[in-house]
User: What shape does this take?
Amino acid sequence: MYKFIAGVVKTILGVNGSKAKVYGVENVPKEGGFVVACTHNGYIDILNLGTSMMPREIHFMAKKQLFDIKGLGWLITKLNAFPVDRENPGPSVIKIPRQLIKEGKIVGIFPSGTRSSENSELKAGAVTIAQLSKAQILPAAYIGPKDVKGVFKRQKGYLIYGKPFAVESGKEGREASVHFLEEELVRLTNELRAKHPEVK
Assistant: This one.
């Protein structure tokens, strides 16, 4: 179902001019499992990120409450999302993404939510998953329409990939990588805004 929905989404975004122009495609690993950590300010960024690596699919980490919504939970499960209880994180927070990466799949995490504490936790989570999985992190940033309203207004979208990096072992390596990821997400966002100052 992922490929079918992705095809429909790409067509709709393309027709409306909101399909993201992608920079840094050469930085995306061609094979193997890894973590992609992208900025997040709506749900159109999820759609653009999710279609940008086709035919490879992304397995998105999503908050547990979304799976409790009738219909939506079934749909996002079919679209490779897996639930995470951020208030009471258990072993599955690490176990599921580690298994996906071991199978050569891509795990998508959006470490830029609405609360700064949540941002830090998700960035640390992305780094920890990559460290324990011995996988790389691919930083990414998006600017453009945030919702359907923006798409109908034919707002342009832009996505950029930075260079993937590995997490060194130990607590110091983890902390250094969290700091580096934070800086990269800001740098990539600023790079996009410099290229496209018209995007609010």
In short: The mean pLDDT is 87. Helices lie at 2-15, 44-52, 72-78, 92-102, 116-133, 148-152, 170-195. Residues 59 and 107 are 5 Å apart (CA to CA).
